[in-house]
Design brief:
alpha/beta, D-Maltodextrin-Binding Protein, domain 2, Double Stranded RNA Binding Domain, 5-stranded mixed beta sheet, 23% strand, binds the ligand NCc1[nH]cc(CCC(=O)O)c1CC(=O)O, Porphobilin_deaminase_N, hydroxymethylbilane synthase activity
Length: 311
């Protein structure tokens, strides 16, 4: 007998970072699991990661993969927690030996949004606008279309970032739409940047659940809360990132979504940090995984690796 009987109450420990967004996402997963299973007790275990502790450096400066995940991964490895909830965007594609990406619930909005108290949207910004963003992808994508914009680094949790907008006199900041929606700060959004022009980060807007390999018990509990379409889309995006060796330190975006006719569309974007050299592939079809392979092959053919600085 492997499945616990329904009458037996089971406790599952979910690991989470402590930020408001991380806790929102973890509570969301906990609620979905409790809804899907009678007699499941969910306990949330919070911890700080390197990315939470070091706030005075940019992400590429801190360097390395997994700066938001390593501490949670140690807890997974020792079974101190049964699953870890991440922003999928922060979960590297190559995971430590013995751990795996278990899937995602339904994705929220994947786009980036512009927030400004001075201007009504991106095309209204002055030529010398000062934009704050910690993301080299956002910077490169904005520079590709608006080469005269100036940039300032921006780190910290969402609340801190919003405070800095007026305090430092920035013209705008750019953040993930999903984060603002989840924290009920949708009102602060000045405009959403269209995903077919400003291609979002791989996995943006999706929650990623990580588990230890061999935990079939946890996989069985997760099965009813996973969203097939989301997993297919983000898996294609993660293939693009993995093949192009893109972490958060190279300007790379990939966005896969269903189209109105029931097919799929994949946008893959790579650029140089200054936005001067850009490749953007758009594919449609019915197999996201195959479309990812094709996008990578085309991008590599057109020189993606040299643009990203890998050769
Ligand atoms: N790297 C930080 C991070 N990781 C996930 C999100 C937002 C939520 C998401 O994309 O799912 C953010 C903030 C941001 O990009 O503005």
């Amino acid at each position: 007998m492997t499945a616990p009987s329904k009458a037996q109450s089971k406790t599952i420990k979910i690991g989470s970072r402590k930020s408001r967004l991380a806790l929102w996402q973890t509570r969301h997963v906990a609620a979905l699991m409790e809804e899907a299973h009678d007699d499941l007790d969910v306990e949330i275990v919070t911890m700080d990661t390197l990315g939470d502790k070091i706030l005075d450096k940019s992400l590429p400066e801190i360097g390395g993969k997994g700066i938001f995940t390593a501490e949670l991964e140690q807890a997974l490895m020792s079974d101190a927690i049964d699953l870890a909830v991440h922003s999928l965007k922060d979960l590297p594609t190559d995971l430590p030996e013995g751990l795996k990406y278990a899937g995602s619930p339904e994705r929220a909005t994947a786009t980036d949004s512009l927030i400004s108290t001075k201007w009504s949207c991106i095309d209204e910004l002055p030529e010398d606008a000062i934009i704050a963003t910690g993301s080299i992808r956002r910077r490169a994508e904005l520079l590709a279309r608006h080469p005269t914009f100036e940039f300032r680094d921006l780190r910290g949790n969402i609340g801190t970032r919003l405070e800095k907008l007026d305090k430092h006199g920035f013209d705008a900041i750019v953040m993930a739409t999903a984060a603002l929606e989840r924290l009920e700060m949708h009102d602060t959004i000045t405009c959403e940047l269209p995903a077919d022009q400003y291609v979002p980060a791989v996995g943006q807007g999706a929650i990623g659940i990580e588990i230890r390999e061999g935990r079939e018990d946890v996989e069985a509990l997760l099965a009813p809360i996973l969203h097939e379409e989301t997993v297919a889309a983000v898996t294609a995006e993660r293939v693009v990132m993995n093949r192009l060796e893109g972490g958060c330190s190279v300007p790379l975006g990939a966005h896969c979504r269903r189209t109105d006719d029931g097919g799929w569309r994949l946008d893959a974007w790579v650029g140089s940090k200054d936005g001067q050299r850009v490749l953007h592939e758009t594919l449609t079809g019915d197999d996201p995984r195959a479309m990812a392979d094709e996008a990578v092959a085309t991008l590599v053919d057109k020189g993606a690796r040299s643009i990203l600085g890998h050769e």
